[in-house]
């Protein structure tokens, strides 16, 4: 099985051996490293008060176990805990500054299957840690340089289960969210909550916007009914149900509710890449400005941004990289092509609740069906592939070989290797969350995107000798 240590946290499969999987020992070790990092980073503050960390989890089966381990580790370090219980990643992100906390931990493996879990680490702004801070935490964990508190100085726990409701209130109060316009349309929407916390919070948001809700897999029991990554091959049930119910569209979120995909009224995928495109189209039509997405995302966002007179830029993959570039360029909206919407008017984090509310408002004002709205955007097609890695494969050497081979093309090595051809592109990179090389391509047709992907998968395998 697998344990992945990265600057964004620790992610792995439950069970197995210490250091090879996300075992209880590993959970305690990395929670200890994070808590120790906060204490070292706030040494002047802790003379006057205890540090405070917000924690929340998705509905994974292993969630309560990991939650208890992490919470009690922080208590043992003398850190107070604001426990949100069952929650979402964006909910924890907004709770950190509202609670004036020193950090936050989200216990979720996001789109990974049920055997996975993770500790995703936040700073005092409710944003993911940068590379420098992440590297310090990994070093603290490696050295096991922990100093736990004596009995009179242990932390305390405060439970607060109201934050998903607070999150909904924050979203509905956004100036560009027009609840009355949405209510007037009397939309009917199917929601697939993949039996996690999205099955609670998204229906509640929809109902408060006057939407008729049809629930599919909305029981937060952690038994994911399909692969939780919101890709077309996993979403046959909701595509069928949208048509059967004569719904206006369908909504799919991943287990921690930071990725958002739509199903058009005809039962076809709206396209997770086009979640950000549609929401950005609405925001840019009301507020002039710039956009950012990562370099694995569709060119369609660039086209829409330029249509509205803004400037588009691409960052390395990873939410923290998108956020950093958004701040540098004063981008008014950004995100990732995997269905992640980052809207700074709310907060600097991928947020499906924000995405749903803005999309509904956009749809209400367009007087178009979802299928018609999708057809109005530039047509690009992507192919997303991957190659499983083994310890013997030298990914850096493989990517260098590809760089050398295509050195005469428009090439970027900011994050892996991205090769821009005149009408298509390919992006090759090692995943931050799984032991794989990702191969993303985009072209004017699905056939061209697939052919390009097949070509590069073959070339990579030849170089790797697999």
From TrEMBL:
**Recorded coiled-coil stretches:** none
Q: Which domain of life is it from?
A: Bacteria
InterPro entries on file: A-D-PHexomutase_a/b/a-I, A-D-PHexomutase_a/b/a-I/II/III, A-D-PHexomutase_a/b/a-II, A-D-PHexomutase_a/b/a-III, A-D-PHexomutase_C, A-D-PHexomutase_C_sf, A-D-PHexomutase_CS, Alpha-D-phosphohexomutase_SF
Q: Which residues form the Alpha-D-phosphohexomutase alpha/beta/alpha domain?
A: 8-145, 177-267, 274-378
Q: What class of enzyme is it?
A: isomerase
Gene Ontology cellular-component terms listed = cytosol
- EC no. given is 5.4.2.10
Q: Does the keyword Methyltransferase apply?
A: no
Keywords for this entry?
Answer: Isomerase, Magnesium, Metal-binding, Phosphoprotein
Among the GO biological process terms of this entry, one is: carbohydrate metabolic process
Q: Which Pfam families match?
A: PGM_PMM_I, PGM_PMM_II, PGM_PMM_III, PGM_PMM_IV
Q: Which cofactor does it need?
A: Mg(2+)
Checking PROSITE patterns in the record gives:
PGM_PMM
SUPFAM superfamilies for this protein: Phosphoglucomutase, C-terminal domain (SSF55957), Phosphoglucomutase, first 3 domains (SSF53738)
One GO MF term: phosphoglucosamine mutase activity
Which residues belong to any copy of the Alpha-D-phosphohexomutase C-terminal domain?
404-458
- Family note: Belongs to the phosphohexose mutase family.
NCBIfam families in the record: Arch_GlmM
The name this protein goes by in its record:
Phosphoglucosamine mutase
Its source organism is Flavobacterium profundi
